[in-house]
Amino acid sequence: MKKLLLSFLLLVGILIQPVSWAQKPEKNSTEQATRILFILDASRSMLGRWESDIKINIATELLGEMVDSLAQLQHVQMALRIYGHQTNVEFFQDCEDTRLEVPFAYGNAKSIQKKLKNLSCQGTTPIAYALEKSGADFPLDEEFRNIIILITDGIEACDGDPCAVSMALQKQGIVLKPFVIGIGLDLGFKDTFDCVGRYYDASDETRFREVFNVVISQALNSTTAQVNLLDSQSKPTETNVNMTFYDNNTGKWKYNIVHTMNHRGVPDTIYLDPLVNYRMVVHTIPPVQLDSISLTPGKHTIIALDAPQGELIVKSEAIQQRDLHFDVYEAGTCQKLNVQKLNTTEKYLIGSYDLIIHTIPQIKLEEVRIEQSTQTKIEIPRSGIATFLMNTSGYGSIYLEEGKELVWIKNLSNDKSRESIHLQPGNYRAVFRTRNSHQSNFTVSKSFRINPGGSAQVSLY
Fold first, then answer.
1. What mean pLDDT do residues 82-88 have?
2. Residue 319, SS3?
3. Tally of domains within the chain
4. What CATH number did the domain enclosing 242 receive?
5. For position 3, what pLDDT does the model report?
6. 6: in domain
7. 231: which of 3, 19, 88, 310 is 20 to 30 A away, CA to CA?
8. DSSP conformational letter for 442
9. How far apart are the C-alpha atoms of 283 and 261, rounded to whole Å?
C-alpha cells in the first residue's frame, strides 16, 4: 500500500508540474478544488471470480488504497455511493437500490474504507438510477470540479437510460463527463458506456490498477494547449486578443485568456480542463469561433483558426473633433461591429467595412478595405465653426446645399438666441423663425459657407 501511495503521488506530482509561462489564469490552476464521487457496483455479479479473488474484493481493496492516497491532497473531496447492496435480487429486483454511504468531505478515506469492508453484494444493477440520485450528492458550489468515477462489472439491469441521465447531469453543469471503469466486461459493452462517459476497460487486475491511476490523474489535472491564430498566409502571427472558452454542455464560460506570444515568439501554453468539450470564441472584430474542441488528457493540443487582421485609424487634426467617435459596420449590412474613437487605432479582420463618422453632418464611407498587417488611415477634413445670432429664441434648422437639394442636418436650439456649432466644410443654409412670430412670412433663410478650420457668423434676423 505504501508503494502504491508513493507511486501515485509521484505520478500526480509529475503531471501537475506547471509549464513555464508568463501569466497563468487562476481558473486554469491544476490544483482547482475537485470533488470525486465514487459509484461502486455491489450487485450480485460482483461476487464472481476474477483473477486472484472475487471482483468485489479486488475493487474495494484498490479503491481503499486509492482514497488513502487522495486523502493526502488538500484540494480533493471524496464521497462514496454504492448500488446493488441492500436488496436480494432473488426476492425482489430493487431498481432503486442505491445510497450515498459517505458524503463529501476532505480527508475522509477512513470513512470510505470502513464502508467498503464486508459489503453485501446481493442486488441488481440500477446504473441510471444511481447516476440520477448522484446529482444531489454534490453540494452547490461552482468553484469545484465535480467528477464521477463509476466502477461496474455489468450494464444497466433496470429500465433506466444511463446515457440520458449522464447527459442531463452534464448539461445542468452538475458534473463533468463521468469516468466508467469496466471490470472484466465483454468489449462488446464498450459502446453501451461510451455515451455515459469516458470508458476504460479493465481486462485483468494489472490493467485495473493502471486504468485507475490514469483515471485519477485525468480527473485531477489540466492539460496543455496552444491557440494558433492564423494570418492570411496561414501563419500563427496574430496575438494580443481575448479568447473565451465555453463548456459546450452547459453553455457557461470556463476560461477567459488573453492570447500571448511567449519569449520564443510562438503562441504561449495555456491550461485547460481535458474533461470538457469547448466552444472557443476569439474576440477579434468581428469575432471568430471554433465549435466542439476536445482535448486528449496529457497530450499537448494545438487549436488553430483563421484570424487575419489589419488596423484602422480615422484621423482629424481639429482639436474639437478629437473626442468624436465613428461606427464600424460589416460592409453592406446594418450589423454594427464597433464604436471607435477618432485618432485611435483598432484591429479588424481583413475585409470591407462601412463607416459612419459622427461629425456634423455625418460622414459615410463605404467599402473601406482592411488588409493583412496593414494600417488603413483615413483623414477627415477639419471642421469649421458657425455662430448663429438671433434677436430672440425660436425655431430653426441647418441644411446642407447639395446641388438643387437641401439636406437637413440639424435643428437649432429653440431656447437660445446665440449658438455655435462645429460643421464640416461645405455650403449650408439656415432657416429660422422667432418664437413670437405667428406668420410664416417672418421666416429668415440665409446661406453661408464653412471652410476647413474657418468660421462664419450667420445673423438670423
1. 96
2. helix
3. 4
4. 2.60.40.1120
5. 43
6. no
7. 19
8. G
9. 17
Confirm if 98 and 160 have CB atoms less than 8 A apart: no
- Element containing residue 12 per DSSP (H, E): helix 2-15
| Cα–Cα distance measured from residue 343 to residue 285, given in angstroms and rounded to the nearest whole number | 18
Count Cα atoms within 13 angstroms, Cβ side, for 377. Answer: 5
pLDDT at 6 over 70: no
CA 182, 185, 188 angle in degrees (round to 5)? 110
pLDDT of residue 30: 45
The CA distance from 60 to 153, in Å, is: 13
Q: In whole angstroms, give the CA distance from residue 161 to residue 82.
A: 18
Among the listed residues 230, 248, 252, the one whose alpha carbon sits nearest the alpha carbon of residue 239 = 230
Query: Could you give the 3-state DSSP secondary structure of residue 4?
Result: helix
Domain span at residue 422 reads 384-459
| Contact of 280 with 342, CB cutoff 8 Å | no
Q: What are phi and psi of 138, to 5 degrees?
A: -90, 120
Largest CA distance in the chain: 111
Same domain, 134 and 259: no
Q: What is the 3 state secondary structure string of 117-141?
A: CCCCCCECCCHHHHHHHHCCCCCCC
pTM: 0.80
The answer to the question of residue 9 being in a domain is no
**What percent of the chain shows pLDDT beyond 70?**
93
309 φ/ψ angles, rounded to the nearest 5 degrees: -135, 155
Q: How would residue 190 be classed by pLDDT, with cut points 50, 70 and 90?
A: confident
**For the CA atoms of 226, 232, 233, 239, what is the dihedral angle to 10 degrees?**
-30
Three-class secondary structure of residue 433 per DSSP: strand
CB 330 within 8 A of CB 349: no
Q: Are residues 84 and 200 in the same domain?
A: yes
β partners of residue 401: 406
Determine the Cα–Cα distance for residues 253 and 169; give it in Å rounded to an integer.
17
Instruction: State the average pLDDT for the chain.
Output: 90
Cα–Cα nearest to 272, from 34, 14, 10, 32: 32
CB atoms within 10 A of CB 286: 14
> Cα separation of 64 and 4, whole Å?
11
> What is the Cα–Cα distance from 385 to 21, expressed in whole angstroms?
54
Domain end, chosen from 220, 238, 263, is at 220
The CA–CA distances, whole Å, from 410 to 41, 224, 361, 362, 414 equal 78, 57, 8, 11, 12
